[in-house]
Amino acid sequence: INRHNEYPLFDQQEIHLGNNQIRRITAEHLQHLESVSVLDIRDNKISELPDEITCLSGLQRLDLTNNDLTG
């Protein structure tokens, strides 16, 4: 079994996790998402993002609308 069959989420181009009461995104959460082009995590409770978010080289759209970010 290769990794992509074992973990199908990692193979996705778009991930939509809006409206899920997510409070934290860690570097560990991001480590397998290099190929993601759309990451929609709007309408959650995220207050900060890890610096590793900049390592998502395929990312074209990041939706953080309506979170608890300050800055």
List keywords for this structure.
about 70 residues, alpha/beta, 3-stranded parallel β-sheet, about 10% helix
What is the count of helical runs? Answer: 2
What order do the strands of the largest sheet run in, or round the barrel if closed?
1-2-3
Give the termini distance in whole angstroms: 43 Å
Count of DSSP E strands? 3
What does this structure look like?
With 71 residues, the protein is an alpha/beta fold. 11% of the residues lie in helices and 13% in strands. The protein is built from two helices and three strands, in the order αβαββ. It has helices at 3-6, 27-30; strands at 14-16, 38-40, 61-63. It has a three-stranded parallel sheet with strand order 1-2-3, with no helix packed on it. The longest helix has 4 residues, at 3-6. The radius of gyration is 12 Å and the shape is globular. The N and C termini lie far apart (43 Å).
Question: What would a concise description of this structure say?
Answer:
This protein is an alpha/beta fold and 71 residues long. Helices cover 11% and strands 13% of the residues.
